[in-house]
Structure prediction request, 329 residues.
Amino acid sequence: MRYYLRKLAFYLVALWAAVTLNFFIPRMMPGDPVDILMAKLQQRGGGVDPSARRAYELLLGTDSDEPLFRQYLSYLGNLVRGDFGISVSDFPTPVSTVIATSLPWTVALVGIATVLAVLFGIVLGVFVGWRRGTWLDSLVPATTVLSAVPYFWLALILVAVLGSALGWFPLLGGYDVVLTPGWNADFLGSALYHGVLPALTIVISSVGGWLLGTRNMMVSTMAEDYVLTARAKGLREGRIMIWYAARNAVLPSVAGFAISLGFVVAGSIVTEQVFAYPGIGSKLLQAVQNNDYALMQAIFLVITVAVLAANLAVDLLYGILDPRTRTGG
Prediction:
């Protein structure tokens, strides 16, 4: 019990530190979101009453006359109430609405692609490590080269070949613009069809790292005494590979997978920009370009909570996969 209390206390402190940095770092950036918003309004309407600046400062929570510490306290209070403010990038849409409409796209795309990359990489790594020295080892340098290819370059190659030259997949967007978003077969099929190329980019660029790491851990694990003992007992090779070698070889991959899964909510800015995908990564880039404090803070907070939750899940899962961690607590 004391082990779990220590873990919980650690993650609560980490969350508070992340929230505090989340508040101060955007305010250290040059520029003022109110100036950006008023410039946009002037472009649309031709003129804005200067007296409206004070109202926009209060609305966006960037009141320069209020002490920074009081702004911080107000920020914490708004977080407790679930009020993330108004987005400058999509004014006057609330930040919560912006995230609610873009986050599902990223979670579906990057989440599924990350899970597929991890599964393919671990499974291939187990077999390659088990059959080291055979032709399967040729998969390692091939996938490593693909992982070393610049992310945006690989995305552009897939767009040029599979999208433009062959015409197998659409080039841009998350769904057919003639469809109305909803839980119906036409829209879901269109979203799935548009997500194939971005997902393929993520899988191809990620699978090599998982394969190499698992393969090396398998080679190291196969030299352990418990694997040699299992072979001396005459156990089947398949059982030794799965229950003795692979079970211990995948432990480092579990931690890496949880951290990667936590960063799924951050999306892939490069991929979403290349494919004009309506995910959270595009919104984050848009928020940085417009000094949208509220949207940046909300996105960073969602990412932080996801990563901390993933790491907490790893700590709990390690107790199941590796009994030594329970006795060490």
Observations:
- The first helix runs from residue 2 to 27.
- The radius of gyration is 24 Å.
- The CA atoms of residues 24 and 68 lie 9 Å apart.
